[in-house]
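Quick start: what a row looks like.
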Amino acid sequence: MSQLDSANQQTPEMVANRLLKNLGTSKAMFCFRTSSGSIYAADGQARTARYKTSENVYVKPSKITVFLDHKYLDPAQTDRGSEQYLPNSLVHQHGFLIFTDKDGKPNHIESWEDIPDSADYEAVKNGLQFVVFDNIQNKAIKKVPISFAPKLGTHPIEFCDPTTHKQGHRNHFGDVIENVTVTNNVTDEESRRALESMAKLSLK
């Protein structure tokens, strides 16, 4: 699911170039860095490519990436017994992304193409949820709202192809975001420089 790059020391320019190449784009729509030092770049379809700095590993792009507020994982802020508390052990293997339409019908989402064409921005914004499904009870036991925009204090959740992803997981749950830069309204070169600046923070 991932490729180990050469053992040579990476540079910010190398990281930016490789992430953009993996995404197949000349410009990232946004980029961010997590508390573990991982660097992410996103394309216009909300896919992310990741560089795991701690292991010098580039990970294949996700199918889609969304963002979860840390409060839904922090027992100091959210009651452990509540429907919205998510133990980390459940997130990787049992989590799904769903969109609930105006009629209350849940739709399993693996890419943006799975969202009905009739859904406008507000409907998508309000209808996306991360759900943990219990096969024994045959019902969703945890439901939390998610966002399609990265913010400080949120966690990225990359939905991936389980046949190529580590340990067969269908998603990757990232550490909390510490730095984020939105670059959709800048030039390709400015976007690349923003990604390089993000990489510099982890390559020190």
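That is the whole record. The chain has a mean pLDDT of 86. Residues 188-202 form the longest helix (15 residues).
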